Structures are given as structure tokens and as C-alpha cells.
Amino acid sequence: MDPVFLAIQLLNGIQQGLLLFLIASGLTLIFGVMGVINLAHGAFYMLGAYAAFSLTEMTGDLLLAILLGIPLALALGWVFERVFFRWLYEREHLEQVLLTYGLILIIDESRSVIWGNDPHGVPVPDWLDFSIPLTETLSYPVYRLAVSVVCLALAGAMAYVLGRTRLGMRIRAGEADRETVAALGVDIGTLYAVLFAAGIGLAAFGGMLAAPIESVFPGMGEQVLIISFVVVVIGGIGSVKGAFLAALAIGLVDVFGQVFLPQFASVVVYGLMAAVLIWRPAGLFGRG
Amino acid sequence: MRLISHPAVLLTLTAVLLACASVPFWGGTYELKVATRILCFALFVLSIDLLIGFGGMVTFGQAAFFGLGAYALFFLSPEYEAGSILVAGLGAMALGALAALLTGLVVVRTKGVYFIMVTLAFAQMGFALFHDTDIANGSDGAFVFVKPALTVAGVTLIDFESRTDLHFTVLAVVVIALAKLVVLIRSPFGEALQGVKTDDRRMRALGYNPYLIRLAAFTMAGALAGLAGFLFASIDGYVSPELLGWQLSGQGIVMAVLGGLGSLGGAVFGAASLVLLEEVLKDQSLVGGFIAEHWHIPLGLIIVGIVLAFRGGIAGALSRLGGTLGGMGGGRP
Amino acid sequence: MNGITRRGVLKGMGAAGAVAAASTLPAPYVRAATPIKAGILLPYSGTYSRLGEAITNGFMLNLGKSGDMLGGRPVELVRLDSEAKPPLGPSNATKLINGEKVDVLVGPVHSGVAMGMAKIAREEEALTIIPNAGADQLTGVLCAPNIFRSSFSNWQASYPMGKVLADRGTKRVALIYWNYAAGKQAAQGFKDGFADGDGEIVTEIGVPFPEVEFQAALTQVAEVNPDAVYVFFSGGGAVKFVKDWAAAGLKDKIALHGPGFLTEGVTDAQGEAAEGIETAMHYADTLDNPENKAFRAAYADRFGKNPDVFAVQGYDAGALLRVGVEAVQGDMDARGDLYAALSAADFASPRGRFRLSAAHNPIQDFYLRQVENGVNVVKGIAVAQLADPAKGCKLA
């Protein structure tokens, strides 16, 4: 393969991985801190994308739509936490799986009632709607690069919040021991609601950013869910750093799998997961 | 584990199985096939109950072994003549067991949420394998034109081309599986499995190897699911990659929980209620056009309701009705 | 939708009742009181529900032409959600055929579901009309006297564009498709058409279905730099591929082609990126024939939106049924005559002339279309009266 195209494929993998990180990070946060397995994470990603579609239609601009959409997503996350998930913290994983499986059915079918079943395109803001020529034939859309930058910035912000701030300390303390935090006088209920809303917000934000790239269509949530699981498992549950590295790895493996092993492209990703688990049963940075 | 032998549960189980046995005498093709399907799913759910209800292993990939069992029927059936029930059935169990053993080597090392996600991911890998490659017609699925039969010395004893033969065979298999599992659960191995579920360290101190115990249970469940898949595929003679997919695994869990975990009989209740519930919700003459078109919403609400307000499932409720309860933790893995 | 059907049935029953009130009753009129039951197995939830809706609408529109009556009997629809899940194909078909005792089965969209359904339809010898699913086998090795298709075969939908490019003398072509059965059959159809020329297929890229991340494939194509690319994607995948193609700057450098589904019903979502794309299909919105104009006006009038190719396929499923039922004057038990009439059907459809091959797949014109201002404009006929080779079919 020509080295220039090899480099471009590398870029493709990294870009794909960064977007995957954005989606998986919310999942791993909710897992790691609250011990809740949320199968409906992909459904919230889909809702984010549909919200971006509708709000862009209304406001005429994706950026405005995202600014409006984020508080909506956070509010939705908050409501779901208060209505459904708060009952799950003390419950078994099995019940969490089941409840969130039910939520997928409800959310997806409600989407069909509200938005119908047509696929939709979401326009990229004009000022980002151009491509950089890389070779004689191929250009790279600037919007994709912009999304990568946003994902990187968000990864940095998450590392900072978790590592350096009081909120981060509380989050990590909650992760370590629920009772201790309660004893410190932090309202664990509110903390969890905030965190859950943030996790859902990340999923929905991922959907909004991806809307112009992926287009908006029924079933888009299911597709990202399972691959996000793989990312979280490889990275180690609860580890944002692990999710970051795992997402990049998956992005690269997926791209080069398609190039070199086209028949088995979807199998190699799982192969990577199996290999990592044989080596480290709790993932790269998990505390199994 | 009192749930297994609780009189109310046993009585209802007997009633449901007798009802299934009666279908060939009053029902048409449609009713008979629904009943056979319920029994096949019951067998599938039993394999899930063994893992979740007794072993504490929340699997989200059990359909992979079910699907493999179904494909075993396709692989082991000659194209234009009847294959052997014995060969295909045992082949399906062997394939399910082998796949479970191989993935189990990795999977049972993990616990809790990891276990859920890893079983899911491995199952999706199996799905992708059958869907994307030409192993068995890929995504279009494959036909088994002639269903298998059991022929001894030239005499055909059981022929799956006959719907009643198949139905009674599946019924017998369910009864045998229930009995075998009761024996298994009460055996030293069963005790050890339940011990591993509650306290790994203690079991290790007692000289058990939790890893091997889990692996054995996982392999057995794989064989059972494979058998269920083989019988399921024998109903219509059509297999497709989605039989390995995550939706079916999810459905299996819903059935298991709805029926009541750790009760074995619950597998039958759960399979029967979910299959019948779906048949009703999809029927526009019963629920109206809007609901029939968007029936996933009521189904989802029912699932959420079960989790929040109906713990212990049907078996748990029955045991409470029976009056002799005392903190039935049947629904807790 | 459901209400309309019910009303239609009631109206039909009323008419039948009036006839029954007349004193002496010849045999066909007694039969007239009981409705013909049509089981509709289509996806009403999930990814393909848009198609399920369009097909149902088209089917009902055709029945509506005669007050929801066929051969003197009212028609009653029994709709069932297929969920586009293949494992449920056989059990849903059983429910309709054996449970509801329908006289005709119409469906499905998804080829996997169609396979499962066809298995049961063959065993039960139930009249079946497939209004979409394109799996070649259905009118190939698995063809049956009672199974008919009002849509296309995957091979048939992709052969024409291959032929067009071969005739133009296009030299180097790359294929990109979803790596599943329909994608592979489409690729085969294209190759068979393209083999007529002296061009070569320079590369074939399979993308895992239903993944919509195409960047790796686009990069590979750019590296090979062919004269033209033929792709098989539909729905959300089609929207995304066409937009990615433009964003990658390939739009003005390499010609993009596909079966009509690449730009069918999704040009709004694709926007500017779809402009100029050439596809071939058995229908186009702008076809200039009286049936199409009447069909489009009636559809828009009744359902408040514009029909697409799927609606046409549903409409023609209704037309096909009409031909059969009228030939036997509503006697659905006259199987031999019914099937013979269906096989011999030859009528003017919105897509042009519609007739069936010996294998019961449509023989039809494929139009070369190009997107202009968001509309698939007909540029001519790519291949006239094309029939599927029906490999392995023993009906003849």
C-alpha cells in the first residue's frame, strides 16, 4: 500500500476511534461509578442524533441545535435517573440489564411514533462545510477533523475533572465506597443524578456531533451499543483512560480489518477483545 | 432452592405441561407450532436459568449456542433425504458444548458486568461469522428441506416431518431436562455451583476450583441451548444468523426473569407467557391497529414493570400464593 | 390506515348484503358475502418500517380502485409486523396461513424473512406475493407454483447498470457493497452485465452490514482511482455513503453508480451530494405514462405524501392479485386457474409494462436515471424487458 494512503487510513482509524470514545466514555462512567450497566446508552445516542436533526431544522444551524440539545439531553438523563435508574443501584446487574433492555424497546418505538422511520441528513454548518485535498483524488472533510478535535478536548476535560477537581474526587470516592461518601456529607443521590445526566449527555452529544457524519436513521443506536461495550471491556470498566486507548485501538483495527481481512472485518474486533481478556481479564485498566 | 419443589410451582408446571401435551388433540397447525416453539424456548431458558439462577453468571450471549445448535441441523442434514435425529441432535449438543467450552475458557474468568458484556460480544462475533461469510448462505439463512427422523433397523420410530412427533419429542426432552437439572442442582456439583455463586473465596478454601465449576456449568448450558436450537430449527426447517443474535439472548433473559429465576419451572412459565404475550400484542384484531403497529412500547413497559414491581417472577408469585413462603429470594441471582 | 381498511370491508360487506337480499342466488353471489383474507406480513417497526408502510399503502390503493372488492368479494387485510427478523419469518407466516387462514400472503421486505416465509408458503401451498425482498433464490432454486414477486431480483436490479457501463466502454470499475447476501447478489448482477464489455473490475470492497462507516472504503477506492464505482447501499447507508462520497472530494473525479435504491426516497436527506448520480431501476417518479400519473395523483391524494418505488411494488402486488381473483371470479380455491391467471398477468403498471417470467419474477424495463435538483430524472431505458435468469428454477 502506498504510504500516503496508509497514513490516511491511519487518520480514518483515529478519527473513528475518537468518536467511539465519546460515546463509550459515558457508558464507562456510569458503569464505573454507579455500577449500572445501561443497555439503553445507544438509544440515547440515537435520540441525540434525532434531536440534532429536528433542532437544526428549526434553528437552521447545527451549532445552535447542539447548544439547545445539550441541556435537553441533560434534563432527559436527570429524569430517567430519577424515574428508573435510582431504583437500580442496589439491584443486581441482571435487573439493570432487563430494565434497560425494556427502555430500548420503548425509546426506539417512541422514536418511530415521533419522528417516523425515514433516514435524514443533517447539514454541516457552512463554515465547516469544506474538505482539504490530501491526494489527487481524495479530500478530507473538515467537519470530521473538527469532531476529532472536540472529542480530544472533551477527553482532556474529562481527565482534568476526574483527576484534579473536587467533583472528580467525589466521583472517585463514590466509586470506591458509597458509604464513605455519604459519611462525608455529600448527597450521594444528587451526585449520582448529576453523573448519570452527564453520562447520558455524553451519549446524546455524541449522537449530535455524529448526525451530519452518520446521518440519522432508525437502528443507529443498536450499532454503536455493542461496539461501545467492546471498548469499555477492553479499556477496563470505569476507566476513562482505558476507554480512550481502547476506542483508538478499535477504530484502527476496524479500518485495517476492512482493508486487509474484508471477509472477517467484523470478527477481528471481537478477536482483539478476546486477546486482551486472555491477557488481562479485567481489561487494560480495570480493577477486576 | 425451595422454589423447585414448591407445591404451587410444581402444580402449575404440571398443568402447563399437560396443556402443551393436549394441543395436538384440539389445535391446528398454528396452535401446535406455537406450543412446540414455547417448549423449545423453555429448554433454551432452562440453560439460562442454570447459569443465572444457580451459577450467578448473567449471560447475555446464550443465543449463540442456541443458534449453533440450529445450524448443526443444517450442517448434519443431507440435502434430499432425512437426516438422523440422533446424529443431528447429539451433534447440536456437541457443537453447543464445544463452543461454550472454548469461549468459556476466556469468559468464565470474568465476573459481573464483564461477564455480561463479554458473553454478548462473543455471541455477536458468532452472529457476524454466519452473517458475513458464506458458511451457510450468509444473511439469507438456509433451508433444511427434509427434517430428520429416528430410524432403527429400517423402522422409522420418530419423524420430525410429523408435527405431532416433533411436539411430543420436544415435550419429552423438556421433562427429561427438568428432571436431570433437578438432580444436577441437588448433586454435590450443584451445591458447589450455588456455592460459587454466593462466595468464591469460601469455596476455594473448601478445596473447590471455582473456575472449573463455572466452566463445567457454562459448557453444560451450551449443550442444552444447542439442543434447544436444534429442536427449534426442526419446527420450520429454516435457520438464519439472527438465531445467534443479541435480541434472542435478551428475550431469553426476559423469559427467565419473567418466569422466576432459580426455579427451573419458571423457564416454562416465562417462555409460555412471553410467546403468548407477543402473539397477543401483535394481533391488531385484539389490541387495535396503533398498538399492534407499535407493540414494542407496551412490551417494553411490561418488562420495566416486571423489574420494578414483580420480583421473583411467576414462580415467585406462585410460591407466595401457595402461602408457605419465607423470604423467597427466587428472583435474585 | 387500519380504519380505512375496516371501512372498506364494511362497505364491501354492505354491497354484498344488498346483493344477497335479492331473491334467487347464483353460486358466486353466496361466496360474495365472505371476504377474501389477505395476510400482510411487513415490517411495521424498526429500520424497514418506512418500506412496510409504503407497500401497504400501495396495496390498499390498488384495492381501493374497486371499492376494496375483488372478483365480487370484499377484501379484508390482516396485518402482522414482521419486525424484519428472519427467525420469525416461518412462525409469522404460519400464523397468517394456518391461524388466520388467509387466502393470500403479501410480504415481506427483508430477504431473510422472505426465505423463512417462503419455506412455509411452499409447504402449505399458500398463494404468496412478494412485494419487495429481492433474494435471487426466491424465483430461482426456490421458485414455486404458488410464489410470485411484484418487485425485482437482486441480480436483475444490478445487471442493467453493468450493461450500461459496458456499452459505454468504461474500463476500470470498483465495487463497494454491504458484505451480505443481497450485496453479493447485486455485485454478481453488475458483473454479469459488465462482462459484455472489455472493462475490468479493479477492486471489490465489502463493508460489514449494516455498518455505515465508509471512510476506509473511500480511501481504498481513491488509491485505486477507477473510472467508475458501483455501490450497493440503501436507506440510511445510502444517505451516508453519498454524502461521504461528496465530502471526500470523489464526486467530480470518479463516476458513482448504483441500483436505484441508492437515490430512491432519500435525495432530500442526501441534498446536493446526490446531484448527477446515475442509477438504474425498474421505476422512476417522473415516468411519463398515464398509469403513473394517475397512480401518483391518487396516492398523494389518499395518503398525503408522494409514493416511491416500494409503493409501486405494493400497488402492483394488488394489481397482480386482482388479475388472479377476477379470472376465477373470487373462487380462491380454484388454485390451478388462479396460478395460471397470475402467471399470465400482463398489465400496464406505473412502472410500464408488467408481466411475469416462468419463474414468477417480473420481466420489466430498467430505466437509466440521473438525479437533477433532487429528482431522479429518466434518461432512457438501460435494459428493456429484462428477465432474471432464474438459475435452478424448474418451473417452465
Describe the structure.
The complex is a heterotrimer of chains A (288), B (333) and C (396). Chain A has helices spanning 3-34, 41-59, 62-83, 93-115, 142-164, 166-176, 178-183, 188-214, 220-235, 240-260, 265-279; strands spanning 131-133, 139-141. Chain A has a two-stranded antiparallel sheet. Chain A is built from 11 helices and 2 strands; from the N terminus they run ααααββααααααα. A two-stranded antiparallel sheet of chain B has the order 1-4. Chain B is globular, with a radius of gyration of 19 Å. With 396 residues, chain C is an alpha/beta fold. Chain C has 2 domains: 2-152 and 287-356, Response regulator (Rossmann fold, 3-Layer(aba) Sandwich); 155-281 and 367-386, Rossmann fold, CATH 3.40.50. Chain C is built from 13 helices and 15 strands. In chain C, strands 7, 8, 9, 10, 11, 12, 13, 14 and 15 form a 9-stranded mixed β-sheet that branches. Chains A and C meet through α1, α4, β2 and α10 of A and α3, β8, α8, α9 and α10 of C.
Highest CATH level, the class of chain B: Mainly Alpha
Kindly report the average pLDDT value of chain C: 89
Shape of chain C: globular
Number of separate helices of chain B: 16
**Per the principal axes of the C-alpha atoms, what is the gross shape of chain B?**
globular
Q: Using DSSP, what is the number of strands of chain C?
A: 15
* Largest interface, C-beta within 8 A: A-C, 48 and 44 residues
The CATH class of the largest domain in chain C is Alpha Beta
Question: Helix proportion of residues of chain C, in percent?
Answer: 40-55%
Q: What gyration radius of chain C follows from the Cα positions, in whole Å?
A: 21 Å
Helix-strand category of chain B: mainly alpha
End-to-end gap of chain B: 12 Å
Please identify, by name, the CATH architecture of the largest domain in chain C: 3-Layer(aba) Sandwich
